Amino acid sequence: MGIEWWQIVLLTLYAGYQILDELTINSSAGSPVFAGFIAGLVMGDVTTGLMIGGAMQLTILGVGTFGGSSRIDANSGTVLATAFSIGLGMSRELAISSIAVPVAALMIQTDILARFTNTFFAHRIDKHIEDHNYRAIERNYLLGAIPWALSRALPVFLALAFGGGLVNSVVEYMNNDLSWLATGLETAGAVLPAVGFAILLRYLPVKEHFPYLILGFVITAMLATLYGDVGAIGGAVAGLTEEFTRSFSGLPMLGVALIGFSIAAVEYKRSMNRSKQAVTEGAPKAAVVEETVEGEILDDEL
């Protein structure tokens, strides 16, 4: 299939925009899932884009930035992995492990370069503040968006414009002469989302609320099994008679999310009631704060 020039242009423009959205507007357009959706839409296969974006979103689920620290750029990795997976016929898992994750890690360097470049505009703004030159302050603030956009757009453009032939050759070589390595990378790509869950669970107050974790897992497993069995029965009945045209769909993730939200809302309301009751009874504030398990992040500690 290949990658057309207009697809390269659109993906490059989005790569430059997504970091600006993440830093300013924060409309979720700078997330791996959204990046997968946009890249899949441009490349003509939204399903593949969402699958790769979702996998990358889960991979960095527990990864965050603290202060001015840099983190892996999963968005750019998702864009390139989706483009090469659809354009060159790579499997999703192989694209995630061999392109998305390495590119996301390498983009830390361009992120740092963008931060250092912006210090030039920051010093100019400091000078204009002393001179009360507000127009110049606004101008340099807007100019600071250029290094940020180029830090993502330029690498993505170079990779899409000049890396297609190299990636295609590597994929063919791996699928033929190094099939064992390709299989291993695909397995690693399938396992990576579990890493994101593990990191997230490490910092969530799981030890204090493990009953909810067990309850959520059991509810999800039971409903998934129930929907799967009902779908299998429906498929069997449809094979026996043509009059049966009813189709069964699986449990949507929105349903699972709403169940989790309701449980979290109940627990939040209970904790607020306990705090209000303790304050009413005259107990010191420290007495109503539960002990924090070492390593877990609670409330607004971020």
Automatic annotation (TrEMBL):
UniProt record, GO biological process:
phosphoenolpyruvate-dependent sugar phosphotransferase system
The way this protein sits in the membrane is described as: Multi-pass membrane protein
Which keywords does this chain's UniProt record carry?
A: Cell membrane, Membrane, Phosphotransferase system, Sugar transport, Transmembrane, Transmembrane helix, Transport
Task: List membrane-spanning regions.
Answer: 141-166, 178-203, 210-228, 248-266
- Give the UniProt subcellular location, in the record's own words: Cell membrane
This protein's major location comes to membrane
* CC annotations in GO: plasma membrane
Presence of keyword Transcription: no
What InterPro entries does the database record attribute to this sequence? GatZ_KbaZ_carbometab, PTS_IIC_man
| PANTHER family according to UniProt | N-ACETYLGALACTOSAMINE PERMEASE II COMPONENT-RELATED, PHOSPHOTRANSFERASE SYSTEM SUGAR-SPECIFIC EIIC COMPONENT
Q: What is this protein called?
A: PTS system IIC component
Give the originating organism.
Vagococcus lutrae LBD1
